[in-house]
Amino acid sequence: MAYDSIAAQIDKCKAKWIDRLAESVAIRSVSPSAEHRQEVFRMIDWTEKLMTSLGIVCQKIENPLGTETMSDGTTLPLPPILFGTLGTDKNKRTLLVYGHLDVQPAAFEDGWNTEPFQLIEKDGKLFGRGSTDDKGPVLGWLNVIETMQGLGIDMPINIKFVFEGMEECGSDGLDECLEQRKDFLSGVDFVCISDNYWLGKQKPCITYGLRGLSPFAIEISGPNQDLHSGVYGGTIHEPMNDLCWLLSQLTDTKANILIKNIDKMVAKLTEEERNTYTKIDFDLNGFKKDVGVEKLTSEDPKQILMRRWREPALSIHGIEGAFSGKGFKTVIPSKVTGKFSIRIVPDMVPEEVDKIVVDFVSEVWKGRGSPNKMKILPLGGTLAWLGDFKQPHFQAGVKAIKKVYGVEPDFTREGGSIPVTLTFQNLTGKSVMLLPMGASDDMAHSQNEKLNVTNYVNGMKMFAAYIFECAKI
Amino acid sequence: MAYDSIAAQIDKCKAKWIDRLAESVAIRSVSPSAEHRQEVFRMIDWTEKLMTSLGIVCQKIENPLGTETMSDGTTLPLPPILFGTLGTDKNKRTLLVYGHLDVQPAAFEDGWNTEPFQLIEKDGKLFGRGSTDDKGPVLGWLNVIETMQGLGIDMPINIKFVFEGMEECGSDGLDECLEQRKDFLSGVDFVCISDNYWLGKQKPCITYGLRGLSPFAIEISGPNQDLHSGVYGGTIHEPMNDLCWLLSQLTDTKANILIKNIDKMVAKLTEEERNTYTKIDFDLNGFKKDVGVEKLTSEDPKQILMRRWREPALSIHGIEGAFSGKGFKTVIPSKVTGKFSIRIVPDMVPEEVDKIVVDFVSEVWKGRGSPNKMKILPLGGTLAWLGDFKQPHFQAGVKAIKKVYGVEPDFTREGGSIPVTLTFQNLTGKSVMLLPMGASDDMAHSQNEKLNVTNYVNGMKMFAAYIFECAKI
After folding, report:
1. Family assignment (chains A, B) (predicted)?
2. Which of A28, B122, B158, B260 is 20 to 30 A distant from B371 in Cα terms?
3. Is the CB of residue B288 less than 8 Å away from at least one CB of chain A?
4. Active site residue A164
């Protein structure tokens, strides 16, 4: 059987797949960092070359937004979007695969145990920035195609690819590009995205929901430049003190959002939805142990899943403009910018979220009575996404997982955001499914990001099995 | 007259003094930064060489503390303290001059208009890190000695020097070194320190008081590593939210400290002291304009001087461990450290301040009810200093200033801290005077630090005149 020989060949070539992932991890395609932007371009070129070698017809589409203006006024070029087409047989179904080639910032000094841009294999884990998010899954698809070609097995479907390089910044220009190139999306029957994670470490899952993201910056400025705290302390209204206070007004100790009317926007929980949570295999203690905390905001596993999947959450990410180094600096920072974001859920709409956040922060700020200048900047939100897991397309995923792992997957949602999911659903009008490769402890966006060797290898087999299932729908 | 020929020669050699300052500014002797620590050593060697060439007998005293342990557990060597002796004539008075050779961190990216470690002359101003704090004044003394030697004028006093390289970190090891080497201090008649600034931009002053400093760090830790805010947002208690809240509890909008009993430690204002404030030439609007704010914490110039000089102030300097870059990163930081300090005044005692701050923060934290771990760390405080400006030594300073500037200086205090002032007063039992070279807008510790060419040149003349006045006491 075709699948079995593919699976055997994938196992056999394991070292090659790991070397390929190492090569891609070494390209520091950190999209949020100005100094690494050119590496994103390089990563796209590298991938195009690999795809072309597999007979995938590639097109680099210039980013419709052209450049990005940074907060300091400088501009940066935006990377192109990489389109690929493998097969145009009208008698075959067409799958669209999305992935991203950029990664989050990472530095050894942040607390990594190894150099983040060097893939290190240890205890069956492949440590490196981008290993699981999202270079591993992207290469997984290409590795499967190479394997099938090597074995002379005919591809039973057409596959189109959309790979971008700005996902970690909010996919700048991608929506516009896809809007402009609807022709590329025509004829697509299913969309599959592998850019999320299992709920746990053992059991695979299929994901049908994502939270959206509403990012914000609060900028507080006072004196025209940083001041000596000895000379000026006590005489001026310090922006940093205002900012800490203002940020402290957004949530309570239990991580509840204090912004008025946020809760009214959240979809009511139906009985049917409530029941889905009782069936899910979720190890609350394992979850706690992985993050290293003794206490969560609830001790009920169902509540925790709901807080991750169907409730909004607000996180303060950091402050720009204050002293952030080691050691001590007796400075009064003159202008500080607090960065926070709200993960939004059905039925929240980013524009409405922006409005109530701006209104709330402005009102709270008025109550502060500080003469400093405050600006609250909504940075462009993205909607949550909710798919329908009863569709045949999702069942193709279920069968693929059963074939590789021998278990029935859970249907899960994710707390994170992949805004393009919704774009693909809207533009194709077809079913979008998230088929994760990595495990829950992969630590995307964090120190020591990794992908298990087994997840990488079995993930490829799952992709192969899924390709055959798609052909049968 | 000796003074007049010295003054003329100082003017004539202006370019040489500026070149010398440029050379010293180019040495990145940033003591608070681990990566630049070796440059502090280099700056000390450079100064020793210059002093030796002037016939000053130098001794590099090994730092008694040996090494410093950084917050990440690594250790750094501490620079030696540089002692110098010029003349040992028992029939002459002996002046001790103190200065420091290290500087605050600086980077072009912080908002400097020019490269901070390259001295740039523009509009009569010498821009560069350390130009005014404290390389300009240190070189001022040495330039005067060189000038007098060049003119064949006999030095009417003995001069001893203590130059250190850890002032910007809290003078690590200096007190211990001076304690151990009391022999070096014996025979000293007066101590002069030029490491502060005029009250305004036009009128010179002599300074008789300084605030002390009590620095603190609040460390809040939750999960064992940084987390993805999508995956984990809403389920855990975020350390950053706790820290912002805790920092917001320390002051109110008007920069009043909310820590209980702090105010009870402050010396009562006497009628005599109150009167000194009415005589001082202080331009409140100029002060506002320089810092670029429309509103201060008081509109009364006397109140503002009191807030700078005789009242405590609390500043939040920044947060370590959160995202501090440009752009956006959807991270939940796992461990964040807030750095703040209190400028302390008579009669506050650092050990007592530490205790009430620790007690207050601990009590407030208990009320928060967060399961995260909080540590409040006092980082070693230093007392305020108050000298007696009625002493003849201060009158020598007055006469020197009258000779150079033709005006009677104001007697001022400073909001900043030079802990060693008190050490010298205690160890010598003699009068310590602060004789500033730079102007109020020199922006020490900030972007675009500068020293006016006129302040540099006239400051040298003032040092020369002061040397002759000391000989007459």
Report:
1. Belongs to the peptidase M20A family.
2. B260
3. no
4. no
Structure tokens at B138: 């240190």
pLDDT tier, A420 (very low <50, low <70, confident <90, very high otherwise): confident
pLDDT over 80 at A73, yes or no: no
Amino acid identity, position B93? R
Helix, strand, coil percentages in chain B from 3-state DSSP, rounded to 5: 40, 20, 40
What is the pLDDT, as a whole number, of residue B388? 87
Do A241 and B229 lie within an 8 Å CB cutoff? no
User: B38 CB contacts (<8 Å, ≥6 apart)?
Assistant: none
Distance of CA A235 to the CA centre of its chain: 45
Task: Spell out where A227-303 has E strands.
Answer: 227-228
Q: What is the pLDDT of residue B396?
A: 97
Strand ordering across the sheet containing A373-378:
A313-320, A335-344, A212-221, A373-378
Written as six digits, the tokens of A364 are 């709270």
Region of residue A42 (phi > 0: left; psi between -120 and 50: alpha; otherwise: beta): alpha
CB contact under 8 A, A343 and B234: yes
Low-confidence ranges of chain B (pLDDT < 50): none
What per-residue confidence (pLDDT) applies to A71? 65
* Alpha carbon of A153: minimum distance to chain B alpha carbons (Å): 38
The answer to whether residues A138 and A464 touch, using CB atoms and an 8 Å cutoff, is no
pLDDT tens profile A249-277 = 999 999 999 999 999 999 999 998 999 89
pTM of the model: 0.81
> Residue B233's pLDDT is what?
96
Q: pLDDT tens across A270-326, in order?
A: 998 999 898 888 899 989 998 899 999 999 999 999 999 999 999 999 999 999 988
The closest alpha carbon to B237, from B222, B224, B218, B220, belongs to B222
C-beta atoms of A229 and B343 within 8 A = yes
Mean pLDDT, chain A, integer: 95
Q: What pLDDT score does A69 carry? A: 83
Sheet holding B313-320, edge to edge: B313-320, B335-344, B212-221, B373-378
Q: Which of B30, B283, B330 to mutate to probe the A interface, most A CBs <10 Å? A: B330
End-to-end distance of chain B based on CA atoms, in angstroms?
A: 19
> For residue B250, which residues of chain A lie inside 8 Å, CB to CB?
241
**Between the CA of residue B64 and those of A290, B177, B450, what are the distances in Å?**
44, 6, 33
- Rounded Cα distance between A415 and A421, Å, is 14
Q: Is A311 designated active site?
A: no
> ipTM for the complex?
0.81
